[in-house]
Write a structure and sequence with these properties.
By secondary structure, the chain is mainly beta. The chain contains 1 helix and 10 strands; from the N terminus they run H-E-E-E-E-E-E-E-E-E-E. The longest helix is centred in the first third of the chain and has 17 residues.
Length: 199
């Protein structure tokens, strides 16, 4: 038998073996893309800009001694409550929840702190500190985990059937958190993009 015929036979047998493999299971995806457009405000007075898409939270000026982890310092300082109020036009009747997923490494995001990747990396000249987000139960949100999200109930307003509206309140806190490295004074800003999804 020629080499070319042997090669062809091997390909046919390999294809037959592949097509005879049994499936162990199937994942089927369902969903929809909706045209909901949400604006937001901070119920605690954060400055809103960019047509209701950006909230600026001022963490203020913090002494590095308050973050030093000594008897006087607790590694966390300048905690600010953020009451994220979402108003969404063109919502879908039947949706019950809104979820915020944080994207620290995407686009304008500051990134993750190199020493403690649960924290948002600061942009500026300060060192030894990151920005931590805490949920309503005062638990640190792990920004390094892409599955981590902040969720809240979505209230649907069907007064105008041509423009069903949704609204939600999500509560969290932001604070400077010592990351374990030596603390150096300086500017300590951060940017944290996020996306919304609904179910």
């Amino acid at each position: 038998m020629s080499k070319s015929l042997l090669g062809l036979t091997a390909l046919i047998l390999a294809g037959a073996a592949g097509s005879a493999m049994a499936e162990d299971g199937t994942i089927q995806f369902t969903g929809q893309i909706i045209s909901a457009s949400c604006t937001m405000k901070d119920g605690n007075g954060g400055v809103v800009s960019n047509a209701g898409k950006t909230i600026t939270v001022n963490l203020g000026a913090v002494s590095k001694d308050s973050l030093a982890g000594t008897a006087e310092g607790a590694n966390i300082a300048a905690a600010k409550n953020i009451n994220l109020v979402l108003d969404c036009a063109n919502a879908i009747d039947g949706l019950n929840n809104v979820h915020v997923t944080f994207l620290p490494k995407v686009g304008t995001g500051s990134g993750l702190d190199a020493t403690n990747n649960k924290l948002l990396k600061i942009s500026g000249t300060a060192e030894g500190v990151g920005i931590g987000l805490f949920d309503a139960s005062n638990q640190l949100i792990n920004l390094a985990d892409p599955m981590t999200k902040l969720s809240g109930a979505l209230t649907i307003d069907k007064t105008d059937p041509n423009n069903i509206k949704g609204s939600a309140n999500l509560n969290l806190r932001a604070a400077y958190v010592a990351n374990g490295a030596a603390i150096k004074a300086g500017t300590a800003n951060g940017t944290l993009p996020f996306v919304l999804n609904y179910d």
